[in-house]
Amino acid sequence: MASVTRPDWPLTTLLSLCAADALGAATEFKTPAAITAQYGPLFRSYQPGSVFAFAPGEATDDSQMVVATLLGYHRGQGHAGVLAALREWLSTGPPDVGGLTRQALSLGAGTLDGGARAWSSSGHASAGNGGLMRVAAVWLAGFEGAALATESAVVTALTHTDPRCVHASVFLTALLAALAQGAAYEDASQAALVIMDTFDARAALLDAGVLGLETQAAHAAFRAADREARAAVRARVRSGRAGAVVSQSGYVLDTLEAALAHGRRADWWACIEPAVLLGDDSDTVACVAGAIAGARGLEVPPALLPALRLGHDWPGWARTWACTAQLPGVLEQARAGAGQTR
Predict the structure, then answer these.
(1) What percent of the chain has pLDDT over 70?
(2) Quick one: how far is CA 118 from the chain centroid?
(3) Which of 124, 165, 255, 337 would staple 76 via disulfide (CB 3.0–4.6 Å)?
(4) DSSP label of 29
(5) How far, in Å, are 67, 79, 155, 205, 267 from residue 70 at the CA level?
(6) Does the keyword Iron apply (predicted)?
(7) Is the pLDDT of residue 7 over 60?
């Protein structure tokens, strides 16, 4: 594949996912009919109407957790630093947090197995998109190759240990890396599927301490569902890159499929606007599609940048900060801190 020709690709991608998320904030949990009735057939600017009271231009928990993860990497403490940063974010009461994410981050402060324990408490049935929505941070922090796959699996499983969630994240970060290197969309998705299929995610989670003696039930459930989960990811990737959108629900594979369908289009608005107009979990689908668009080199329309904020205060971030002013430094520090652990 061609070498990277855009030295600003991390910032392009981070701004893209944040702006897309902020657009989707207004239509989250709404139906397409209600969205069209309220906003009309086009959606080309930030709008009021968020069910969580985000102001126009404010990005939601998706982007907030991406940035919190990057702030965690800045600490140079590996997974423990990332987990601590996510817990600090949660402790400040963000309004829009998935149930499994909240439970996993609330279980214990000194171990990495909160996600596994939360998954077991769900009967090993919960496979939401709370890991997928933030995993782009791993790629943005500078991980590559096998380290990117390992880190994506572990960081996802801090909250979402279902193998569908883990494999979806491994696929997504591999896709972003391939796209940033100039691969065509179908070629990049196929290369990412090969990485997902050949990577031993269960071993990575065991090595990191996400799975272990205290989480034997989760370990057994992961092993039993592993092959079927990989097949499910493969199927939804292939349908998504062909343009299918079954649903924009919070189920991880619905989100992945929809984001792939939207993210393949010709320009930034064509990638993001359909995700926003379809509603349901529109902020997350738009956020993931925004990461894909950014990795392809599609830049955020300039008119969206001045108002872009993250809609919450927590240690390391102020709600009033402009993303364009603060995110370059966040990225630089995260990549430096992550480099200490690679």
Answers:
(1) 97
(2) 19
(3) 337
(4) T
(5) 5, 11, 11, 20, 27
(6) no
(7) no
- Which amino acid is it at 333? Q
Cβ proximity of 164 and 114 under 8 Å: no
Q: What is the mean pLDDT of residues 59-71?
A: 99
Structure tokens at 341: 């652990």
Give CA angle at 101 (165, 233), nearest 5°. Answer: 10
Binding residues are 60-62, 281, 283-284
> Which among 231, 224, 235 has a CA at the least distance from the CA of 257?
235
- For helices 163-180 and 252-263, the axis angle rounded to 10 degrees is 20
Stated as kind and residue range, the H or E segment containing 228 is: helix 216-241
Tokens of 242: 């062909």
Q: How far apart are CA 128 and CA 112, in angstroms?
A: 19
Q: Where are the domains of the chain?
A: 9-339
Quick check: 294 and 9 in contact, CB under 8 A?
Answer: yes
Structure tokens belonging to residue 142: 């500078």
List, in order, residues 6 or more apart from 19 with CB less than 8 Å away.
59, 272, 290, 300, 304, 305, 308
Q: Which residue blocks in 132-215 are alpha helix, DSSP H? A: 136-140, 145-157, 163-180, 185-198, 201-208
What does R_g of the chain's alpha carbons equal in angstroms?
A: 18
7-11, 114-118, 267-271, range with the lowest pLDDT: 7-11
Q: Which CATH class is domain 9-339?
A: mainly alpha
Question: For the segment 235-264, what is each residue's pLDDT rounded down to a tens digit?
Answer: 999 999 999 999 999 999 999 999 999 999
Distance, in Å, from the CA atom of 62 to the CA atom of 60, rounded to the nearest integer, reads 5
User: What is the DSSP secondary structure assignment for residue 303, as one 8-state letter?
Assistant: G
Per 3-state DSSP, the chain is made up of helix, strand and coil in percentages (nearest 5) of: 60, 0, 35
In this prediction, residues 25-53 reach a mean pLDDT of 98
- CB-based contacts of 105: which residues, under 8 Å, 6+ apart? 83, 86, 87, 90, 114, 158, 159
